[in-house]
TrEMBL record:
Gene3D superfamilies in UniProt: 1.25.40.90
Transmembrane region(s): none
GO molecular function, one term: mRNA binding
Native source organism of the sequence: Rotaria socialis
Biological process, per Gene Ontology: mRNA 3'-end processing; termination of RNA polymerase II transcription
Protein name from the UniProt record: CID domain-containing protein
The CID domain, residue ranges: 7-136
CC terms in the record's Gene Ontology section: cytoplasm; mRNA cleavage factor complex
Entries under Pfam families matching the protein: CID
InterPro entries xref list: CID_dom (IPR006569), ENTH_VHS (IPR008942), PCF11-like (IPR045154), Pcf11_CID (IPR047415)
Amino acid sequence: FLYANMAGKDDYQDFKVALNDLKLNSKPLINFLTILAEEKMHNAPQIVRAIEERIIETKGEHVLPTLYVLDSIVKNLRSSVYVQLFETKLPVLFSNAFHKVDERTRSSMFKLRQTWPPFFTNLSLYNLDTRTHDIDPA
């Protein structure tokens, strides 16, 4: 009974712990996190919050793998719930991540962003581009 009442909190903690294990671009771990996000879709806001917090709190070298998790969830689950939740904060998250990383990682982030037009609105991507252009005009 007690566990049932805390399911949302536990899902958030479980996802956050798994996400914190993601230190480099590990396809198996990214796939695992994507499956976990699918299984816990009823707690999508908590899953999205865990990813947002990871991007904001982590060091530069761990940002790109976390963005790959976001990308994998959006592209593989094709859930409007996840897309809408990520989209509201995408420009801020992406620019926050962009601030922390080196030129090589920025190039990888740019390539990733180029794949997003089918998933996110033009307005959201425009805002993302404007924010990153302010950081790095290149």
